[in-house]
Amino acid sequence: MPTSLIPAFLLYCAVSAITPGPANLCSFASAMKYGRRQALRQWWGIFAGFAVVAIVISLVVWFLGSAMSRFVRVLTWIGAAYILWFAWHILRSEGGEEAEAGAHCSFFTGLMVQLTNPKIMVFCMTALTTYALPYAQRYWDVCKIALLLPFTGPMANLIWLFAGAALQRFFRAYQKPVNILMALSLVYCAVRILIP
User: Is 81 helix (H, G, I), strand (E, B) or coil?
Assistant: First the structure.
């Protein structure tokens, strides 16, 4: 990537990372419900899932080229379905069951959120095809950018997580309206993914 593109690349990463999406909303809701410590355990799964997706997308971009558009569309539908399921789960959540924290706020749930998150798939695909692939001579050139991407989204995700932890008391006082708002936000994410 030419150095003249670095500011545009970083701005794209910052804006894409901080906007609401499934992982950001998941961290926000988990921190509000279970607290910062439990949500951080889930965040490590989000980070690992982002890294896996970034590497897989870099391979897809490098080796499949134009055939990748059909692959992304299928994953988009799968991801949107998962987001809707997650919204339904939040909407039906009763709260107060701290024992559930291990099941709903774990490394594995963070990993699954990212592995089915079409927002980061599109983010990685856009970043790599726009800022890396046109200037790459070897796969390693694309892979270097892919290895940088997990330090963008998940870092912004921490902002959402700490905001959720700070609002934990508010969540407990207004749990049902907050759950409805979070579920509607996830539905909006799913709709925007399917209908840009």
Answer: helix
**Which helix (DSSP H) or strand (DSSP E) does residue 114 occupy?**
helix 107-115
Exposed / middle / buried, residue 139 (Cβ in 10 Å: 0-12, 13-18, 19+): middle
- Per the structure, the complete domain to which residue 120 belongs is given by 20-92+100-194
Is 3 domain-assigned?
A: no
Identify the pLDDT of residue 52: 94
- Could you tell me if residue 65 is left (phi over 0), alpha (psi between -120 and 50 degrees) or otherwise beta? left
2 falls within a domain: no
- Asked if residue 13 is part of any domain, the answer here is no
Report the number of distinct structural domains present in the chain.
Answer: 1
Sequence-ordered strand ranges (E) for 18-177: none
How many other C-beta atoms can be found within 10 angstroms of the C-beta atom of residue 160? 23
Flag whether 109 is in a domain. Answer: yes
- Please tell me which residue, 78 or 44, carries the higher pLDDT value: 44
pLDDT tens per residue, range 94-131 = 654 443 444 467 788 888 888 888 888 888 887 887 77
Which H/E stretch holds residue 146?
helix 139-148
Total-model pTM: 0.69
